[in-house]
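Subject: Re: docking follow-up (flavin-adenine dinucleotide)

Dear J.,

Thanks for your patience while I sorted out the input files. As discussed at Tuesday's group meeting, I've set up the holo structure prediction with flavin-adenine dinucleotide included as the bound ligand rather than trying to dock it afterwards. The sequence and the ligand SMILES I used are pasted below, so you can double-check that they match what you have on your end before we go further.
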Amino acid sequence: MADLEAFRAETRAWLEANCPPSMRAGAVAVTEDDDGSIWGGRKAKWTNPEGKLWLDRMAAKGWTAPTWPKAYGGGGLSGAEARVLTQEMGRLKARPPLMSFGLWMLGPVLLEYATEEQKQKFLPPIVRGEIRWCQGYSEPGAGSDLAGLRTQAVDKGDHWLVNGQKIWTSYADQADWIFCLVRTDNSKKHEGISFLLFDMASPGVEPRPIKLISGQSPFCETFFTDVKVPKEQLVGRFNGGWEIAKRLLQYERQNISSGGFGGGGGGYDLEHAALDYAGKDEGKVADADLRARITAHKMEARAFAMTVRRAEEESKQGKGPSAATSIIKYAAAKINQERTELMVETLGSQALGWEGEGFKPQEIMAMRAMLRAKGNSIEGGTSEVNLNVVSKRVLGLMDHQ
Ligand SMILES: Cc1cc2nc3c(=O)[nH]c(=O)nc-3n(C[C@H](O)[C@H](O)[C@H](O)COP(=O)(O)OP(=O)(O)OC[C@H]3O[C@@H](n4cnc5c(N)ncnc54)[C@H](O)[C@@H]3O)c2cc1C
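The structure tokens for the complex came back this morning:
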């Protein structure tokens, strides 16, 4: 305990000295690229040099991946120390030094399934934010039924030859590498899938951005035409990719649940928003109905945060996340959608602005966050699919499919 307190003091002093002022802006939305969050990679623009400085300083300590082993560039911290780091960063309202599918999804499965050589090659650049990864899972016709995927990888002796198409590949046009599910045996469904890593700059890889109604293009269709992938970039067993795919989804769902969902009103608290916009009565939110609903939501969100914390503790003590992450992912989607809808309601007509001088940043953010949150019950597995996982893998009910 005394050691932990010493660690806290050291960490606090280090963060105070090393977190640049513009990196102390508080909570940021985590899925949009244009909000100043740091995603790194070869294509990073570094419009704010302090962002690069913050990433480099944190990465040098391994604190972008606090609990990963030092041998792979991680911080080597215990769970308790990592929690102290999170608390101290929260105290300073420090921005995350790196947003990364590599940190949240790929790295943890590489630690479990990759060869030593693969770990040495791929993990340190993830920690340093040098390589940005995207996730090549979904295909037209293979979303919820992911094991129905058809992108082919054919064994050509010294390499795999990949042909096919992915869809909804978040930030494929910004990414440097892809972790990709491919079919390596057409005679079996789940047992005919392998897990490949390859460079998005390989000849034959073509991400085409999908323009959304918002004007943004966070997703791509990603086409592969005769892409040559070196043999050693297969992770795990040949035809053993489904096990890794499912494990990665557990990490994805765990991460989404512990705050990985896009914006909740730019860090603007619902209660303060209601006091500012919906009127006060003796220091309380005047509208009794709105007050009651915000209170109920905050209680639910608080209870949920504590449940997530407990599940994380259990996962650290056991063998990592389990199928129970589906319960949490389901609830996280619901709570985030409720919160963003309540925020729009609270701001009233001021939430209707999309851009322009008549609207403050938190007002514009509120509407965007509410619309973005609609995807929460789809990404990382839909709510219906997660309920199926809960019924089969958590409650042990019969599979009627
Ligand atoms: C914001 C966002 C980011 C994403 N990023 C990525 C990414 O980076 N990489 C990637 O590979 N994919 C990504 N996706 C895709 C996502 O994983 C799929 O959209 C999702 O798995 C659903 O697949 P689908 O769109 O094909 O819908 P479908 O599978 O066609 O589902 C349609 C509807 O049918 C329901 N349904 C389907 N099967 C069942 C069933 N067995 N029981 C009950 N209901 C069922 C679903 O719940 C849904 O309501 C992203 C999606 C979103 C929204």
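A couple of observations from a first look. The longest strand covers residues 159-170. Confidence is low (pLDDT under 50) at residues 27-33.

Let me know if you'd like me to rerun anything.

Best regards,
T.
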